[in-house]
Amino acid sequence: MPRHKVVPLTDLELEIMNIVWKQGSTTVRQIVDELHAKRPLAYTTIQTVLTILTQKGFVEYTPQGRAYVYRPAVGPDGVRRETVAAVVNKWFEGSTRSLILHLIESDALTAGEAAELRRLLDQKAREARKEAQHA
């Protein structure tokens, strides 16, 4: 999977990518059917968005009869990681620490999330100490 420049996804692109990731491979018709109950969109609209997602490098397709079967070219974790990195660089001057402090100070974390974060930070610190001892 080639690494590419982070290209932001629109809300509709992300909604469609979530379906593609969930299905593994899908057609325009299947996406239209899945979205229909909450967001009825024309077949051509979904087809256009998939063309854009192909150009952006998020999906690939294979012709199958008269239809194209789309599959993810990148996974959700990679997209999340690149998106968060772009946010950190753009809004927090490249400082992950500043982002975390912002989240803590804005009361965006629940007590449970804060406890989980503390556990993960403690684990990361233990791993770093072990690596330093073996170096």
Give a description of the structure:
The protein is mainly alpha-helical and 135 residues long. It is built from six helices and two strands, in the order αααββααα. 63% of the residues lie in helices and 9% in strands. It has a two-stranded antiparallel sheet with strand order 1-2. Helix 1 crosses helix 3 (43-56) and helix 2 crosses helix 3. The protein is elongated. The mean pLDDT is 90.
From the structure above, extract its key features.
135 residues; two-stranded antiparallel sheet; 2 strands
Tell me the layout of helices and strands:
Elements: H1 11-23, H2 28-35, H3 43-56, E1 59-64, E2 67-72, H4 76-91, H5 96-105, H6 111-134
Antiparallel strand pairs: 1-2
Helix content: 55-70%
Count of individual beta strands: 2
How many whole angstroms does the radius of gyration measure? 20 Å
Reading side by side through the largest sheet, how are the strands ordered? 1-2
Determine the structural class based on helices, strands and strand pairing: mainly alpha
Give the gist of this structure:
The protein has 135 residues and is mainly α.
